[in-house]
């Protein structure tokens, strides 16, 4: 018999968005409107600094302050994305542990809840980083590389993103997901909400969310909830 997600749903849809920027306010509103649950990967030091940078489009991308973010993500997962968003390629173990551990502690304090997910900054992954994530008590580590697959990942500490939202194949990937018969199919969209402004794609994103929300065989869970469900059921 085919295994199912909670509520007897055949498949699960989720989003995982990085950096905690101002456009998350509009994006979370959209998710809430359709009952879709997401994961938001935050850098606590950059929130405190209200870090800003200029995107190639000329738009200034701003981080949410701790006070602006405090209640925003209620009902969604808050996960670590390191303290300062560094390139970890040449970082030693102690620097990686500090970037992960301090960010997790800060976020737990700010949001008053446990933080057990991790998303790596840039497109970095190494065995060392995966080990550090485990040591810090994270239950999974998501990376930016796309799997373009609906299959649950074999290694939750090398969790490839489903699809990046700027992909021209975004709609066809979602179409395929809605039609697939694959057991325990997962569709995970990743990105940064400032891209929705820069690429003027709020309408496209809302159309996708509306379509998925209308499907009765799709569950809506955060990445951590999916990881826990699959782990508890001996799938991961
Ligand atoms: Zn990032």
Summarize, please.
This protein is of the alpha/beta class and 236 residues long. Strands 1, 2, 5, 9, 10 and 11 form a 6-stranded parallel beta sheet that branches.
Give the helix/strand layout.
Layout: E1 11-18, H1 24-34, E2 38-42, H2 44-48, E3 52-54, E4 60-62, H3 66-69, E5 77-80, H4 93-111, E6 117-119, H5 127-135, E7 140-146, E8 159-161, E9 163-164, H6 170-179, E10 185-191, H7 193-198, H8 202-213, E11 218-220, H9 223-232
Parallel strand pairs: 1-2, 1-10, 1-11, 2-5, 6-7, 7-8, 9-10
Antiparallel strand pairs: 3-4
Helix pairs in contact: 4-5
The structure holds zinc ion (ZN).
Zinc ion binds at residues 18-19, 81, 85, 121.
Salient structural properties:
binds zinc ion; TIM Barrel; 20% strand; alpha/beta; 236 residues; three-stranded parallel beta sheet
What is the count of structural domains? 1
Shape: globular
What can be said about the biggest beta sheet? 6 strands, parallel
Count the E strands: 11
Could you say which structural class the secondary elements and strand pairing correspond to? alpha/beta
Could you tell me the strand content as a percent range? 15-25%
Termini Cα gap: 18 Å
Hetero groups in this structure are: zinc ion
Number of helices: 9
Q: Any idea what the CATH architecture is?
A: Alpha-Beta Barrel
Low-confidence spans: pLDDT under 50, at least 5 residues?
none
The helix/strand order is EHEHEEHEHEHEEEHEHHEH
Look up the CATH topology. Answer: TIM Barrel
The percent of residues in helical segments reads 25-40%
Please state the average pLDDT score. 96
Radius of gyration: 17 Å
Name given to the CATH homologous superfamily: Glycoside hydrolase/deacetylase
Regarding CATH, which class?
Alpha Beta
């Amino acid at each position: 018999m085919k295994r199912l997600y909670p509520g007897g749903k055949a498949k699960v849809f989720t989003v995982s968005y990085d950096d905690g920027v101002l456009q998350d306010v509009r994006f979370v509103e959209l998710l809430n409107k359709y009952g879709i649950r997401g994961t938001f990967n935050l850098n606590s030091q950059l929130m405190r600094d209200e870090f800003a940078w200029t995107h190639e489009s000329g738009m200034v991308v701003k981080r949410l302050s701790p006070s602006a973010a405090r209640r925003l993500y209620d009902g969604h997962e808050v996960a670590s994305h390191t303290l300062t968003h560094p390139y970890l390629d040449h970082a030693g173990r102690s620097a990686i542990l500090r970037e992960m551990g301090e960010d997790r502690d800060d976020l737990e304090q700010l949001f008053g809840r446990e933080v057990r997910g991790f998303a790596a900054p840039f497109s970095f992954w190494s065995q060392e980083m995966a080990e550090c994530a485990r040591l810090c008590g994270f239950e999974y580590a998501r990376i930016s590389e796309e799997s373009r697959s609906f299959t649950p990942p074999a290694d939750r500490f090398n969790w490839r993103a489903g699809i990046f939202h700027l992909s021209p194949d975004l709609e066809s990937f979602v179409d395929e997901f809605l039609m697939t018969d694959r057991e325990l199919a997962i569709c995970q969209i990743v990105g940064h909400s400032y891209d929705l402004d820069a690429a003027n794609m709020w309408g496209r994103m809302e159309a996708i969310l509306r379509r998925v929300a209308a499907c009765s065989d799709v569950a809506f869970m955060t990445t951590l909830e999916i990881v826990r469900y699959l782990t508890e059921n001996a799938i991961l």
